[in-house]
Amino acid sequence: MTGHGVGVRAMSAAGMAEAAAPMLLRQDHADGVTVLTLNRPAARNSLSLQMLETLENALALLGEDASVRCIVLAAAGTVFSAGHDLREIKAHRADPDQGRGFYDRAMETCSRVMQAITALPQPVVAAVQGVATAAGCQLVATCDLAVASDHARFCTPGVDIGLFCSTPAVALARAVPRKAAMEMLMLGDMIAAEEALRIGLVNRVVPGDRVMETALDFARRIAARSALTVRMGKRGFYRQVDLPLAEAYREASCIMADNLMAHDAAEGIGAFLEKRRPVWEDR
Fold first, then answer.
1. How far apart are CA 261 and CA 185, in angstroms?
2. Between the CA of residue 280 and those of 102, 174, 223, what are the distances in Å?
3. Nearest-5° angle of CA 217, CA 229, CA 255?
4. pTM value surpassing 0.85
C-alpha cells in the first residue's frame, strides 16, 4: 500500500496545521483499490474551490490508471463533508461583481466533479464516517455505493439559510424516491443513517469502526471482477437509467451483446460451466 498527498498546499482559515497538509490524500492498495481521503477536518472537509479542483484532477488521473479497479472516497475527522465552504462564499461577496463570477466557477466545478464520478470507469464507494450536508450529501448520493456509520447523519439544509440546495438536488433526486428527496430539500432536516438506508441514500449502515472495513470489502470484491465487465456495466447503467423503458432496453441489449463478445465473458461462462475459477484478462 502506498500513500501520498494530491494537489497543492495552501493557507486556510482552518489554521496552520491543516494548511501544512495536503487537502486530499491518496492510498493505493496492492489489490487494485485506491482510497481518496478528503483532508480538511478542521474545516469540516468543506468543498472549497481548491478542494473541488484538487478532487477533479485526482479523479482524472485515476480514470486513466488501469491499475486502479475500484475507488473508496473517505474523509478525515468526524465530518464527511459540510458542503461548499460558506466562509469562502461570503468572502467573495466583496468581489466587484458581488461574487457572481466565483459562484459560477464554483458551481460549474462542483458539477464537473459529480459528473466525473459517474463517468469514471471504476466504481466509487463512499465511506461515510460522520455528517454529510448539502454538497457533501450530494457527494454521497453521487457515488455508486455508500457505506455509513451508524452515527452518520445527512441533510440538505440550504433552505434554512436562504440557499436552496439545487445542485445537490440533482444527485439526490437520482438516488432516492422523489418525495424523500423533496422532504430533505424543503425541510432541511438532518436524517439518521438508518433513515438514509431506508430511502436508499446508502447501501449499508455499520458501527463506526467498521465503515472503512466494509467499504474496502465492497471495493475489493468489485476489484476482483473483470475490470472490462464492471466498466461496461457501470457505463451502461447510467446510460439507461433515465431513458424511457423501450429506449432503456434497446441500450441495455446493445451493451449486453457487446459484453457477450468480450473475452472475459467467454472465460467467465466457460469457467462457470467447467466449475473452475475464471481468469480475467480485462478484455
1. 44
2. 46, 32, 11
3. 135
4. yes
